[in-house]
Records
---
Amino acid sequence: MKHIIIGGVAGGATAAARIRRLDEFAEIILLEKGKYISYANCGLPYYIGGTIQERAELFLQTPKSFGRRYNIDVRVENEVIAIDTAAKNITIRRKDGAIYNEQYDKLLLSPGAIPVKPPLQGIDLEGIFTLRNVDDTDDIKAHLNSHHVKSAVVVGAGFIGLEMAENLYHAGAEVSIIEMGNQVMAPVDFSIASHVHQHLKEKGVNLYLEQTVAQFEKRDNRIEVVFKSGKSIVTDMVILSIGVRPETQLAKSAGLKIGETGGIWVDEYLQTSAKDVYAVGDAIEFPHPLTGKPWLNYLANPANRQGRIVADNMATGNTTKYEGAIGTSIAKVFDLTVASTGLAAKRLKQLGIEYGSSTTHSASHAGYYPDALPLTLKLTFDPVSGKLYGGQSVGYGGVDKRIDQIALLIKHGGTVFDLTKVEHTYAPPFSSAKDPVAIAGYVAGNIVSGVMPVITWRQIQEADLSRTLLLDVRTPEEHVLGAIPDSINIPLDDLRSRIDELPKDKTIYIYCAAGLRGYLAMKILKARGFNDIRNLSGGYKTYDLATAPV
Ligand code: FAD
């Protein structure tokens, strides 16, 4: 059996190694148009910033070591330029321009994604970069070294844009981020992103939201980034990080079916519309397990898993199905960690899916043990059954393990009630006896069962104060330091004695710092005949961050 694999990094290299483990005698050719295979693209920003000091650390394998270990014919600087699926033949161009052909029995495409580069005036000026591979990294590093970069602009505040912002800051630059949307990190909800906005401000990063770049102009040795609004910034370098799209040129010209979101269409065995031709990674689209709708998911874990699954199907026939990814991702932004899985509220809204949500603020571990730091969890779920749709978290430690637990439950069709059953490891340095995931589950469970009706920070802003009372049950000291405008303050511990101050003919929106005291106040009021009450989800902390000016 002769297997040919196009693309030698995440999906391609994984598949090649697995095929060898399944079939010691197969012929395997790995074709990569770049100079390197199996390198750590996710580590590239950290090499640029100096956290990873040795360039060699980025290479998990060299073409030679990989070829030798797995007995694979690795050909770098060999670009596949055509596929004839009827004749099972591909055309390859070597670096020296020579063209040759190869026959295949099974073919895999793992060509990845390409950065979006809009046709703006000046986009090709020296000093403007995209980051996708080792060559881009070398170019950025060389520019940093040769131009004594003092300021840098990152266009686009996605995960990679933010990682680059941090790393350019570590490399000594004053960093400005320009983002067209009203928040950083599009996959998470605004209230979670607002923690990042605050943190970036604290770090001295200039954040321009709802600003679009119109053009770039050369100013001596520097670049002027001109916004549509007329504002401009003069800088030493620009990183364009406004997104990627699937690399489908080869697939299109081979007549392979392209799906509705623009990725290569594959079936559940990761086989394309042509027999014996498979595709994985950033280039494919696949139905989202929660929505059933195809989507593009540019992440390393799915690419690697798909590489392994597809190898089974190529080596032993179509036996292993891929179940799809829900988009579990994480990023470090300076001292913060932001992670998410499944569907955020804004995505559910776009899809027209009814949902409930809850926001809880806990600590990364037991509060009485040193260095416990805040950790926020937002859940989205079916408002009736409690089926989990998504989880988002932001904090300084332990964010990853919480989102990983939630992701596992979502993939197994779990509900918010299942979150309370997660048996987690506990000792004071690591967690609390009631882990943040369990707390989030209890709160969301109370919302689903109707025990605790909630209101969101957005709904509070739209509240009609002629029919609504805003009740702050924190202490007077907390109230003075910052409160929702027009709210009255009756501390929780005084509530029973001051109950007569509350109107029974108005809706009462209760809030405290994070939600717990609000819930206790709600219990007291309910027992005393107040029926139209809601508790602010996430409390004043969420409201304050989400409404802070950027
Ligand atoms: P790739 O790994 O990109 O490999 C595709 C390869 O195919 C390329 O080397 C390309 O040269 C080659 N190729 C394309 N066309 C041809 C052709 N015609 N002939 C021969 N070769 C061809 N994901 C995460 O989950 N977490 C992270 O922290 C993270 N950080 C990232 C940071 C950066 C800077 C980048 C660029 C990506 C990051 N990703 C991260 C995304 C992750 O790297 C990708 O999802 C993953 O590599 C996709 O695997 P792939 O095999 O589809 O494509």
---
Amino acid sequence: MAKLVINNGCSLRGTVNISSAKNAILPIIAASLLSGEDCILNEIPYLEDVKVMGEVIQSMGASFEILNGERLRIRAENITNHEPVYELIRKMRASFLVMGPTLARFGRIKISLPGGCAIGTRPIDLHLKGFAAMGASITMGHGFIEAVAERLKGESIYLDFPSVGATENIMMAACLAEGTTTIENAAEEPEIVDLSNYLNNMGANIRGAGTDTIKIEGVKQLKGAAHTAIPDRIEAGTFMIAAAVAGGDVVIEGVVPEHLKPVTAKLKEMGVEVYEHERSIRVKSDGVVTPTDIKTMPYPGFPTDMQSQMMTAMCLARGTSIATETVFENRFMHINELKLMGAKIKVDGRSAIIEGCERLSGAKVKATDLRAGAALAIAGLCADGYTEISDIFHIDRGYVKFEEKLKNLGVNITRIDE
Ligand code: UD1
């Protein structure tokens, strides 16, 4: 299994280009099942998760073709199988997003309960409640869910929690339902807005994405469309934090600064210089940061996907910080790994109390999930000696050319394939 080795941390200098957002592309690939025509996706981040989503829709009969390394053509004309392959659905939670489009267009689906990062129980009750409210008959057993509906019907759906996946799944299904669907307490993440823009280009009629109330007027069918997904705000935020704590001067290019407001605000509070331009953000830092507190929240709150990277920054702050995780109940697995590098962290329920230190020490650590892997790499940039990160397949699920981008910023980082 591959490992990343960082030899003595150093400051970062240069420009890093941000890829399209994994969390935008995955639902967009699923949404392409709503049409039988060609769908073209430009500048795709060809990550492990994107490959898995491709395999899921191929297992159903869709074609998924990489045109020139970064362009994707999807055609879901001949969907012959309404039972996506079990192993693929178990591999990645986002693959569950094929449920809404398949049920809406073909009237049935049999799908296994999803898998994914082990960061909590991650139920799918809100997705299913939405489909049931729209008239689907749902049965569960032996680890599978079967849903049938001749044609879904528009309904008013209130989500108990603004779940990103449930909002996306229900929004996609509602595009082909009869009548109007209203999703209240909907997630407001930028990826929801991107998906809604894509669906509207396909001929859907969605209003209100990006607010807590989304209205979808159902249509009979959708056509093909071309789309370029939004930049990856989590990848961008990861490089912002890396530059803040390792020190240096980095331009993060190809971002929507508005999407990064919660991270920018926190870094400024920690004494880091952050300059927002139209499509880029510059981070300048001497590597010395003051403590702060964060609480993860649905957008526009501080993103749970940035919690572990921010915790690394807190480990290096001059004082005590508190990180509270409210979105997932088990997203502190990186703490034991950070402790191996000399971090001083105590957990009290959903909060972690972090006593900052000047420097961490290189150690052998394990990426326990995708963002935890990135947090450990940032820790490696601020550590003496060798940091060896194993299980980096997690990092490959979500970061395009991670070590190459760090190398370009001056980091002594090597991938070792064993
Ligand atoms: C998406 C992101 C993930 C991010 C998360 C929260 C993608 C592909 N993944 O995941 O990177 O960390 O949003 O910003 O976009 N919940 C329920 N019932 C449900 C659905 C969710 O209780 O039916 C709970 C979950 O257990 C969790 C919380 O809601 O505690 C948030 O989950 P959700 O917003 O659905 O996250 P995902 O869509 O899985």
